[in-house]
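Following up on my earlier thread - several people asked me to post the actual chain instead of describing it. Fair enough. Here it is, all 21 residues.
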Amino acid sequence: MPVEHESAGLREPRFPVCNAG
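Reply from S.P.:
Thanks for posting it. Predicted structure:
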């Protein structure tokens, strides 16, 4: 579920996945 991961990263900047992505 890439959409959920992206949403979580955008809403929660503590996710290194979105930052790295």
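The mean pLDDT is 56. That should answer part of your original question.
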